[in-house]
Amino acid sequence: xxxxxxxxxxxxxxxxxxxxxxxxxxxxxxxxxxxxxxxxxxxxxxxxxxxxxxxxxxxxxxxxxxxxxxxxxxxxxxxxxxxxxxxxxxxxxxxxxxxxxxxxxxxxxxxxxxxxxxxxxxxxxxxxxxxxxxxxxxxxxxxxxxxxxxxxxxxxxxxxxxxxxxxxxxxxxxxxxxxxxxxxxxxxxxxxxxxxxxxxxxxxxxxxxxxxxxxxxxxxxxxxxxxxxxxxxxxxxxxxxxxxxxxxxxxxxxxxxxxxxxxxxxxxxxxxxxxxxxxxxxxxxxxxxxxxxxxxxxxxxxxxxxxxxxxxxxxxxxxxxxxxxxxxxxxxxxxxxxxxxxxxxxxxxxxxxxxxxxxxxxxxxxxxxxxxxxxxxxxxxxxxxxxxxxxxxxxxxxxxxxxxxxxxxxxxxxxxxxxxxxxxxxxxxxxxxxxxxxxxxxxxxxxxxxxxxxxxxxxxxxxxxxxxxxxxxxxxxxxxxxxxxxxxxxxxxxxxxxxxxxxxxxxxxxxxxxxxxxxxxxxxxxxxxxxxxxxxxxxxxxxxxxxxxxxxxxxxxxxxxxxxxxxxxxxxxxxxxxxxxx
Length: 582
What we know:
Structural class: alpha/beta
CATH topology of the largest domain: Rossmann fold
CATH superfamily of the largest domain: Alpha/Beta hydrolase fold, catalytic domain
Oligomer: single chain
Shape: globular
Largest sheet: 11 strands, mixed
Low-confidence stretches: 1-9, 32-36
Distance between the termini: 30 Å
CATH class of the largest domain: Alpha Beta
């Protein structure tokens, strides 16, 4: 490699290369998610300030913890000197950061690890023993853990033995490659989680054959080509979240929920939400109902001639669907929906889980002030906030692999999708935060008026399938379970293994994981799980059988997509979904 080929060879001296690498890394991490980082620091200081004020009145508890920590440090030094062998601090189960043998066999790195784990335990114990109200206690726990994770010695080149060994073995090439990756991500303004060059929408993602048959400023509607000679006379309309792009449900052939639905003998439609810019800042929740879901119902009915439609939704798409069903009930049109399916959807927001640390009056007001200037909530900022909920897995592991070790992330379709976020209109986002997360108005009868209609979710009598996932940290399953006690129709509740994404995208063909069914409803989530039965494999097959039981006759599959009033606009996946924030 010549100087003309690469700018990195100017660092002929390994020490200069290491210094340049460290400088660039620090600059990037300081600039990474600047707004969130400043908010994080502010909330961290606020949480610990509250703790400090409280502890000043009763210092004995924290003095005892500090004394214990100091004694552990003394014992650790005694071990280094060979005087004693104290009990060692252990990383949590599943923590792979200290798996390399150097962390156990090299005295210096063993000391770094032990000292870090001791300090982490001290901070964690201090947070746990703080006598704060629930809201401030959650914030203290979260920000403390985020700080602990960020300060791990594995995240810094000079204190990670694997990084140092690789730099020596490759004669510095790993640092050169890492610097190259770092500079590329600095241009993107985000951390790469996968080999993005490996994927292209319409080529190897979102490839189920279909066409856009309708569009307005807020959405496109895609109809998929049938794969069976006959189909149910009840078409399926999928309402994905507008926070993300729809192709999480149509990744590749082997893990596409859309293709699975088509192959089960359904005429399938899906909404592809627009990725809004500042010109669309005034779109409201009402618009996502009227221009979005309700309009999609009309389009599907007109194209197919169906008397009833099966609606399927995910996350905030489910929240939008529920409000649309409530509006339909008030308009006496609810009968057009034969069934409703909600994947990991919150209707009751009384316990939003970990994401609640980002939502209080001060933080929301600050964002609203920012949104007056930007017009949209940046999808990149939202994605960063979600990554911070799982910082070790979604931030620091990539810092180590991409920058410190100079490795290129492996191709992974879900992580490509995760790196392709969407914006949200300011007006819609503000309504969502305040009325759902902050005030929990959605479950209060007639508290909200949408599309000029007071809504009451308890009036919805549509047969309903709820799918939640046991490790969901975005929509906690016990909170989503409450939806079964809000709606009035026939309810089927299923609990899948894994989390918010992997628990939903669990292809039937792979027969992985498990799910729980048949628990007792009406007595809370704990009682339901106690009485439920675990089934092996994917819940997809269970849902498909449930859908068939809701009714519908077999009719010949449509010979063409669209209709005379709805001609094909363009092939799937359409223009809207390929618009990126970058």
